[in-house]
């Protein structure tokens, strides 16, 4: 590619995305290119944040998305990762005063997209639960599914997000109270989500760090001695968040 052509393409793309005056403004049809760029970005955001859009309404969401586009223009034509900063957008945080949990709900929408776009995991080459003896859990670690995403929130955003997705509630003006966690994974093609408690989150956190199953369970039990970690561990197994197990190498 010639250097002058590369320079032209760079300047043309920058003019489309900037929204400010440029030498291209006098070109016939340039405004169409610029409008199409904005519309494509807004549609990408609408597809990535359907729960936020449901809360704000179509008009409110599009105004928010347009503001985000103007202050955060795409840096490349591939819009799949364009929205990764949307949850931190200042106007979104401002609207959280009226719609509690909105910022965290946006983060969960983003997690859902990440889970959906994650590569399919390779065929399981490790061990299943039935292949591990009770005395071997101290030397066994879990390999999480490639689409597994989880997070703990200080807000009830996971509960509100799941209820909105299932049409169990219409808005989050009066959400439930309390911290909660969420797990998203894709064991059978479609993304599945479930609210998780603190023990389940701590188990997942330990497993994701590469700790043995026994060590992760012990740490979770120590943090919440009133809980039996057996039931939470089974729920995680049933969710498909864990792809397989493998033996840890002894040092």
Keywords:
Outer Surface Protein A, domain 3, 251 residues, three-stranded antiparallel β-sheet, mainly alpha, 2 domains
Short synopsis of the structure:
By secondary structure, this protein is mainly α.
Whole-number radius of gyration? 23 Å
The best one-word shape is elongated
Give, in order, the helices and strands.
Answer: HHHHHEEHEEHHHE
> What kind of oligomer do you see?
single chain
Total of DSSP H or I helical runs spanning 4+ residues: 9
Largest sheet: 3 strands, antiparallel
Provide the spatial order of strands within the biggest beta sheet: 2-3-4
Helix content range of the residues, please? 40-55%
Distance between the termini: 53 Å
The figure for the number of domains is 2
Strand content: 5-15%
Give me the CATH architecture of the largest domain, please.
Answer: Alpha-Beta Complex
Q: Which residues form runs of ≥5 with pLDDT under 50?
A: none
Mean pLDDT, rounded to whole units? 83
């Amino acid at each position: 590619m010639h250097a002058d052509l590369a320079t032209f393409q760079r300047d043309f793309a920058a003019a489309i995305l900037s929204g400010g005056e440029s030498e291209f403004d006098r070109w016939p049809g340039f405004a169409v290119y610029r409008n199409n760029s904005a519309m494509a970005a807004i549609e990408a955001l609408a597809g990535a944040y359907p729960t936020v859009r449901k809360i704000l309404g179509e008009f409110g969401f599009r105004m928010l998305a347009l503001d985000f586009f103007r202050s955060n223009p795409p840096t490349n034509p591939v819009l799949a990762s364009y929205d990764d900063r949307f949850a931190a957008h200042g106007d979104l945080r401002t609207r959280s005063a009226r719609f509690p949990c909105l910022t965290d709900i946006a983060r969960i929408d983003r997690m859902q997209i990440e889970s959906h776009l994650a590569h399919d995991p390779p065929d399981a080459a490790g061990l299943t639960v039935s292949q591990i003896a009770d005395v071997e859990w101290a030397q066994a670690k879990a390999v999480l599914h490639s689409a597994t995403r989880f997070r703990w929130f200080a807000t009830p955003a996971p509960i509100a997000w799941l209820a909105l997705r299932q049409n169990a509630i219409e808005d989050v003006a009066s959400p439930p109270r309390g911290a909660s966690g969420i797990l998203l994974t894709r064991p059978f093609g479609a993304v599945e989500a479930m609210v998780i408690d603190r023990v389940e989150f701590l188990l997942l956190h330990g497993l994701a760090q590469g700790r043995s199953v026994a060590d992760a369970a012990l740490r979770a039990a120590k943090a919440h001695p009133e809980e039996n970690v057996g039931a939470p561990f089974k729920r995680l197994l049933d969710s498909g968040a864990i792809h397989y197990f493998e033996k840890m190498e002894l040092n």
